[in-house]
Amino acid sequence: MTSLAERLLEHGIRPQNHRDGNHKLLCPKCSPTRRNRKDPCLSLTIDRRGAVWKCHHCGWSGGVVERDSAKLLRWARLAAPIKPSRSPGEPTPAVLAWLAARGISEAVARRNRIGAARVYFPKLGIEADSIAFSYFRNGELINIKFRALADKAFTQVEGAEAVLYGLDDIAESEEAIFVEGEPDKLAVEEAGLNNVVSVPNGAQTIGRADDDSAGFVYLGNCAAELERLKRIVLAVDADDKGRALEEELARRLGRERCWRVQWPNGGDVQCKDANETLLAHGASVVRECIENAAPYPIAGLHNVIEYAEETIGLYRDGRKRGLSTGWPSVDGLMTIRPGELSVVTGIPNHGKSEFVDALTVNLAERYGWVFAVCSFENPPAEHIAKLAEKYLGLPFWEGPSWRMSEADLQRAIEWASQHFVLIRADDEAPTVEWILNAGRGAVMRYGTRGFVVDPYNEIEHQRPHGIDGDRIHLRPARQGEALRAAVWRARLDNRPSASDASGERQAAGADALRHFGLGKLGEQSRSRSRGASA
Fold this sequence. Notes:
Layout: H1 4-9, E1 21-25, E2 42-47, E3 50-55, E4 61-65, H2 69-79, H3 93-100, H4 106-111, E5 115-121, E6 126-137, E7 140-148, E8 154-156, E9 175-179, H5 182-190, E10 196-198, H6 209-213, H7 217-221, H8 223-227, E11 231-234, H9 240-253, E12 258-260, H10 274-281, H11 283-291, E13 294-295, H12 308-317, H13 328-331, E14 341-346, H14 352-367, E15 371-375, H15 380-392, H16 406-419, E16 420-422, H17 432-446, E17 450-454, H18 457-460, H19 469-483, E18 486-492, H20 502-515
Parallel strand pairs: 9-10, 9-11, 11-12, 14-18, 15-16, 15-17, 17-18
Antiparallel strand pairs: 1-2, 2-3, 3-4, 5-6, 6-7, 7-8, 12-13
Helix pairs in contact: 10-11, 14-15, 15-16, 17-19
């Protein structure tokens, strides 16, 4: 049976992938004869029904229908999350007893529609009686999470949409309290505070950003409800994972509207979360802790005591080095830390963009970073081809060296889709504010750790009258610090005269790269298993 890819190919249309969504491509009808042959003037939209396209230069348009019934069914399943087929049963005496042992009253349980069910738990390998936590949005049942009564084992409706527990409780509020588990939400309600939500999956593992990022998809799914909040109180667990969760939530939601709770940690009873505080000290102390939450630092206004722990750590451990660039010869001169601005400058055709691309690939491989890239000089397809070359260590184009196979390319595209988000100003002239807004959105939705603007000169001409360039340049730096994301900007420097020979410039660039042991960026051969540059 003819696939969608084959049907598009019959019309000369070759998208980099065939995922649902909008694609910008070269037009097979007019691009070969245009002066600007690299302009992706063809808009292609793919969905479960097929694909349609239109060229914004020559006007060519058309469409094809997907005829693969198996793929249609698979797309239909992906397009709509699975919803529970039925609600859990009424809470049993065993469920109410389980809650009572944690200080939760029947009234709070029934308000949250706590239920009971007997379900299969993969961790236990058996069916077991459980307490059922129902997740609602606008009154509609979205998911059910089950916890075994006799063991600490969890399961939920497979394929359900990830949303915050208690989402409807903040629907009319400008303030929300975030906790780390369903019992903690119920404990805060016992203190008389109902505008509280719980993350659906606890604190994520501390480690690689790509391992952690999938666990925060619920923030994107609840973006409409979260955007209107003016104050967010982070009342998560007081342990290493809880502190990592607190930092990531504040980074994604915006530190300027976040406050953090300190649970009691003095005397004989030290409390880790809201539920332990309720049992040890009572509802009044839970409420007191939340009402006395301390704000995250406001940009430009800090109390010295905020840095006490960091200063003591500096005294004990010294300065901590940043992340490796992937090149030992460069690490001796610079390392990478979130929140810092790096400027890559030089004369034309000396590899500024190639260096930044190679660096981002190294960081994505080694640490799982996700990057938002705003590149004005590279059409998306060609930029992705360059990233593929650096990831595979193989050339994209035909030449004297062995070229990557199409299967290699597909593998590289799949990898790049997990680590790179492209910011494109397709319909408007880019401004600093527009780019930074896109960067904030990328942090919220994808958890990006790095932000690249290349070249920065493309937006410098739009700075307001009377504002010098240095003041404009500070804005990405401040934005990166606020988002805890590393920021790079490549800047073109035309200081050498036009009479300089091109060969002399290229030779100087090659000498500089060899000085750092980099070789020709984009052509290094690397082992995918090691994930390091040669």
